[in-house]
User: Fold Diguanylate cyclase from Paenibacillus beijingensis.
Amino acid sequence: RVKENGKNNFQFYTPDMNDAVTRKMQLEIGLRKGLERGEFNVCYQPQVDVTTGKVIGMEALIRWQHPELGNVSPADFIPIAEETGLIIPIGEWVLREACRQNKRWQDAGYTPLRMAVNISSRQFQQSNLVEVVRKALKESDLDPQYLELELTESIIQDSKYAISTMHQLKAMGIHLSIDDFGTGYSSLSYLKLFPIDSLKIDQSFTRNIHTNLKDAALVQTIISMAHNLDLKVIAEGVETKDQLDFLQLRKCNEAQGFFFSRPVSAEQLSDILQKQSSD
Ligand code: C2E
Ligand code: MG
Ligand code: MG
Ligand code: MG
Assistant:
């Protein structure tokens, strides 16, 4: 890596870089073994209807417990999994696990909820993605309307292919959303081309709603734009009551964040659902 870094760029080699390279290699090797060794698990973060306060869905988020490194953040290992292609088997595992878990909750008698699963661009570009999704639904016997795939703006690179894949997924009845909306340096024109259902406002905007007038303006504008396009909006990273009030006033549909719950284990989410159903 270090040597590849540009033709005329002189690079100082520092112990820090050495650590970073070693860690990256360690993660890459670990990722290859992680699946077989059962080191991954999925946690779930509730998504709440802003008007009723009820949990109406959840996002599946992968967790990795490395034998030596302990908990490794997805922000650190997902990019490596993408680079190495390991995101394909890992992503498929998450998808199957999330579908199975959602069906389990339905079988337990809870009001059916929508399960959102992150799909990275590398996964989205794999030619058999539609088949992989179909298989996960079939195997879990989950109704496709209770599955949502979160895509990022980066999939737009190859828009012809992306649109066709999206249409196939839509035809199955699956929901599609754009994750981290507004952070991807992409043109807005895809919004009229892509058959999507909702936008997720990135947490970097939500965070500063009350301290930065520009972030407040952006959030408000994203909500109105989405509604004018007949899309739903969900705000990510909601941590305070004030942020929720702001979103409520501006008719944001859904919210997700530490204010409601951190990502939790399936067992802990069952408790949340249990409480809600006895309210
Ligand atoms: P994301 O899809 O945008 O997920 C939201 C992230 O924000 C999660 O971080 C979640 O724990 C965190 N979060 C939720 N509410 C709050 C809040 O109120 N405040 C703050 N500060 N953070 C909050 P996490 O789980 O570390 O995941 C990071 C990213 O890694 C995800 O961002 C997603 O891009 C990726 N990722 C996670 N799981 C998967 C997966 O199964 N497949 C793929 N392809 N990517 C995944
Ligand atoms: Mg997401
Ligand atoms: Mg996001
Ligand atoms: Mg993100």
In short: The pocket of magnesium ion (ligand 4) is lined by residues 180 (CB under 6 Å). The beta strands are 40-49, 55-66, 70-72, 114-118, 147-152, 175-181, 198-201, 232-235, 254-255. Residues 87-107 form the longest helix (21 residues).
